[in-house]
Amino acid sequence: MILNTIWEQQYNPMGNIWLSAAVAALPIVIFLISLVVFKLKGYTAGGLSILSAAIVAAVCYKMPVDKIAGAAEQGIVSGLWPVASIVLAAIFLYKLTVKMGFFDVMKQSISSISPDKRIQVLLIAFSFNAFLEGAAGFGAPVAITAAILVGLGFKPLQSAAICLVANIAGGAYGAMGIPVTVPATLTDLDALTLGKNTSLILCLVTVIIAFLIVFMVDGFKGIKETFPAIIVSGGGFAVTQFIFLNFVGPELVNVSSAIVSLLALIVFLRFWQPKQPLTAETKEISKDDKGTLSGKEVVRAWTPFILLTLFVTLLNTGFFKQLIQAANPKTGQTAGALNSLIFNFPYYIDGAVARVAPIVKQPTPIKAVFSFAPFTSTTTAILLAAILTIIIFRVNSRIVISTIRETAVELWGPILTICSVLAFAYISTYSGMSSTLGLAFANTGKVFPLFSPILGWIGVFLTGSVVNSGSLFAGLQSVTASQIGIDPSLLVAANIMGGAIAKMISPQSIAVAAAAVGLVNRDSEIFAKTIKWSVILLVLAGVLNLLITLR
Question: Where does the sequence pass through the membrane (predicted)?
């Protein structure tokens, strides 16, 4: 629906671009102070940011109140679907495996592959973490893998820190590539091109992460003794990652790379093992323990995640994409058989706000349509895996109901945070505040790519999500790139990279990790373990990004 009146954005409401940028940054500063200084809950800080953004939009940018409300509406709905729905479904599936007793068998099966702690972090913290990130994302991977490491005998603090650092490998692409596809949509960029540009730096960072997590366990000695395994695991992941990002797309990059990395390392370990295994201090695995599980028991325990892999893959095959494709009269393409099951609902703000020069050459109304497409949703894949698990193993209805209740109670806070941040982000985007900041940053000239990843890093530090960071700053990155004559996809890609590097220090991510390993209220200790690695990798990403844009 297009409203009768179209409001045109303005980007310099104060008459001075730097003064306008200072005003546009106020909601971000308020969010930062609320979260870090006053230590308010995420959704409270998000609510204050919505209020401050709305006031700035109405008073300084003269944006009509109904359009401010429409932008917030779109942000809230986007937070609920697909972001929050994925988190809910993933945590439900994980809790279900715990209540069914499968989780303990999964941990034991991992120990049987190798008793060496350094190998286990490659299998669990690195590869399985990325797999879960690709299937679910949004905190679930760190929580699940950190809990597994503790079960294997790792110290809680060490487990949390390692899994947070390892999450970089898959964090940039999240659940089904959403951290790439969301900013691509917001900036009208091609998702494949955007993903390809992230591979220029992140594939190298992926290999570094594989070495780094082994170093966190056993220093340079550990790297030396497990070097072949690190190369097989990290190298297999990075090569698969590069191939998918450059030729397929970001949607399946985490799942495919994780599976290749896992299988390659497991096969390699049949022919090679460290000469001096480093076993867990609190749970030493003996050779006799390897025979305690039958193949049937292992497959049974891993069935929920096997089903998840199958459904995620199936819903992203070319066959299914043809079933849901829309008709295109220009090319003669007919609608797929399931296309009628995709429901599009225009938001109130659809076509009611227009971008103007210098952001675009001619006034261009912004499209705002909610698309409910269950046959391409990660949420659907996870729920199908959970439902089939319940049916196959005849899970008692009381267990299912209690699991649903526990999941909802635990996640209502993070979901409110996600929705509030996205509402704030959409108000900033539609009002033109993000564009104002971009135009101001354009004045830094060709050196801006050096600092470009920092915006993504700040966004994830505040929100805990690469998706939310993209919603906040993708527009800014794109506008700045256009102003200084750089391909916008390079700087939006830098935003994604910086965001992935910040996941290990995000208060939201650290809180999830602390809760998973029993370290509630000890967030600062985990932060101290991860901050130095995050800063080092951020500097590396900034320097490499500058070199790439200057080539």
Answer: 17-38, 45-64, 76-98, 119-152, 158-178, 199-220, 226-245, 252-272, 301-320, 369-395, 407-427, 447-469, 490-519, 531-550
- For residue 145, tell me if it sits in a domain: yes
Residue 127 structural domain: 107-275+293-304
Question: In this structure, how many other beta carbons lie within 10 angstroms of the beta carbon of residue 544?
Answer: 20
Burial letters 444-457, b for 16+ CB under 10 A, else e: eeeebbbbbbbbbb
Which residues of the chain fall below pLDDT 50? 1-3, 282-290
Please tell me what DSSP assigns to residue 121: I
Burial of residue 391 (number of CB atoms within 10 Å: 0-12, 13-18, 19+):
exposed
SS3 content of the chain, % helix, strand, coil (to 5): 75, 5, 25
| Residue 82: cis peptide before it, omega within 30 degrees of 0 | yes
3-state secondary structure of 8: strand
- Neighbour-count burial of 428, counting CB atoms closer than 10 A to its CB (0-12 exposed, 13-18 middle, 19+ buried): buried
Residue 477 · residue 490 · CB < 8 Å: no
Burial string for 279-295 (b: 16+ CB within 10 Å, else e) reads: bbeeeebeeeeeeebee
Cis amide linkage into residue 358, ω under 30° from 0: yes
How many Å apart are CA 132 and CA 304, to the nearest integer?
A: 12
Domain count, the chain: 1
User: What pLDDT shows up at residue 286?
Assistant: 41
Which residues sit opposite 97 in a β-bridge? none
Establish if 286 belongs to a structural domain. Answer: no
Give residue 134's identity as a one-letter amino acid code. Answer: G
Condensed to tens digits (0 to 9), the pLDDT of residues 479-502 reads 778 778 888 889 989 988 998 898
Q: Is 516 within 8 Å of 146 (Cβ atoms)?
A: yes
Q: Which residues on neighbouring strands pair with residue 371, listed in sequence order?
A: 344
Q: Which of 358, 365, 366, 356 is nearest to 485 (CA)?
A: 358
**Mean pLDDT over all residues of the chain?**
83
CA–CA distance, 471 with 55 (Å, rounded to integer): 20
As a whole number of angstroms, the distance between CA 35 and CA 38 comes to: 6
Helix or strand or coil: residue 362? coil
How many residues appear in the chain? 551
Residue 186 lies in a domain: yes
Residue 217 within any structural domain of the chain: yes
- Locate all alpha helices (DSSP H) within 274-396, ordered by sequence: 295-314, 318-324, 378-392
